[in-house]
UniProtKB/TrEMBL annotation:
C2 domain boundaries: 110-235, 244-374
Domain of life of the organism encoding this protein: Eukaryota
GO BP annotations listed: calcium ion-regulated exocytosis of neurotransmitter; synaptic vesicle endocytosis
Family under the similarity heading: Belongs to the synaptotagmin family.
One GO term describing the cellular component: dense core granule
SMART domains: C2 (SM00239)
PANTHER family associated with the record: C2 DOMAIN-CONTAINING PROTEIN, SYNAPTOTAGMIN
InterPro entries reported in the protein's UniProt record: C2_dom, C2_domain_sf
Protein name per the record: C2 domain-containing protein
Organism lineage: Eukaryota, Metazoa, Chordata, Craniata, Vertebrata
Keywords for this protein: Membrane, Transmembrane, Transmembrane helix
A Gene Ontology molecular function term of the record: SNARE binding
Organism: Pyxicephalus adspersus
Keyword Transmembrane: yes
Transmembrane segments: 20-39
Amino acid sequence: MSSQLSSFQMFLPISDTLKYCLLALAIALFLTALIILACKMHQYYKYKSSILKDAKFMKATSVAKKTEGNVLIQLMQKEMEKLEVHLTPSPPSTESLDDMTSESDHTREFRGKLKFSLNFSKKTMTLLLTVIEATDLPDYSRDPFVRIRVFSKVDEPQSDVQSVLHECETKVVKNSRNPVFDEDFCLSLKNYQLSNTCLKLEVKDFDKYSRHTLIGETRVALRDLKVSETLEFCEELQEKTKDIIGEVLISLKCLPTAQKIEVGILKFKTSSLSIIKERDVYARIDVFSNQQKQKHQKSSLRAKSKVTVFNETFLFSLPDPGKTHCLVLISLYETVANGRKLIGQTSLGNQTKSGHNHWDQMMQTIRQPVADWHPLYI
């Protein structure tokens, strides 16, 4: 009887209150689990979103850097093309590069006029030039003067090389846009063919501390002059042109392991008509790679002659020569009493038109020097 009672007590039904309490606890645990799961899911998607955002940012940064690099390369190419314009002959003649930057800023505007007169004496074979005045010069002109050059072509009909027979300058007129010069120059043309000779007048703005600014130029072919008759001209100034006054022999050698190039200045020759003065000459080499200008190097002084021999080489850093945008600028100077005087310049590289073939030959013959002649412009 007692055992039956205890078994009955063990299987007594649970009260409704306890059931509801257990159900509430289960629901609470379930809701807690859902909240924890939701928090974890939120953290996961937040982490995934930050990763995607970082990836997009890195991609955008990479594209921006690539775009910036392309822009820099395009800017360098434009600068090189601009430089090449000044280093490539433009019919019928060429120009000096000492005013390259300033002239490019004023290529299309009105430059003013230059008034001068010419009288040729066949008996004495002299040309009397009178530089009278300049009028209506641009606003940026402060202290103008006129540089005078007489050019003559060499005897070879196929050659574009010209000789500088005479070079002189007028006085500087201070603070005037309408300067009056009124200066005479007697230029001997003895032993020269008048048909191959021309007169070039450049109006420049004097600068004591920097390069003189070229305002404009005008040319006269002397073959049109009549004997013993004074001709007066009033010519509108034009943008500058260029003249080939010699050639320079340059060698190039690529050293990919050392990441360098070797630039050699071998010879410089001028026309037989050029006036050889007792002066020393030297070459200066400037190298631009990916818009970065390296420190220039100079050759030693050599006595000026019809063919001046240098035979000197110079090393410049050039990482990855096949991909690096490079420009090599060669300038020849002669020493004068008050410093130096530019004889002429030429350029070559993988971004120039005139020197591109030479550069390609260098890249095809690694570690072997390749020499070629390049025209020298003024």
